[in-house]
Write a structure and sequence with these properties.
Elements lengths: L2 H4 L3 E8 L5 H18 L3 E8 L5 E8 L2 H11 L6 H7 L4 E8 L2 E5 L5 E5 L2
Antiparallel strand pairs: 1-3, 1-4, 2-3, 5-6
Protein name: Antibiotic biosynthesis monooxygenase
Keywords: Monooxygenase, Oxidoreductase
InterPro entries: ABM_dom, Dimeric_a/b-barrel
Length: 121
């Protein structure tokens, strides 16, 4: 891996496919779990829980300073009581897709309403 790639932030995407009546419970559980990750693991940058309009999908978006930080948190956290595997069983997920991505570019709006494009350094 080139030095430039080693300095990029790391994103984990976990998509759950569920029955619509399970969505609100899974959103709550993932929100709590994301908060635990934020408080308990170094390198956490941001996290979001997204719910589809049709009620059949929930996406958990976690962004870390480095791949190592994200992987270490996930490995440590999955041994706990409320791990991702528990959520899969408890909310009867039909499918779960895990994805890992290096952030190479992001666009953000600043408080002064300007757009800023940041390349990963």
């Amino acid at each position: 891996m080139r030095a430039l790639e080693q300095n990029r932030s790391f994103t984990q995407l976990i998509e759950f496919e569920i029955e619509p009546h399970q969505q609100s419970g899974l959103v709550s559980a993932l929100s709590e779990q994301t908060e635990c990750l934020a408080q308990g693991y170094p390198g956490f940058l941001s996290g979001s829980v997204l719910a589809s309009d049709d009620g059949r999908r929930v996406l958990n978006y976690l962004q870390w300073q480095t791949r190592e930080a994200g992987e270490a948190a996930f490995q440590s956290f999955e041994k706990g009581e409320q791990d991702f595997w528990h959520l899969i069983r408890a909310y009867q997920a039909k499918t779960v897709t895990f994805g890992s991505f290096q952030v190479v570019r992001s666009i953000e709006r600043s408080p002064d309403n300007a757009l800023h494009c940041r390349l990963a350094s």
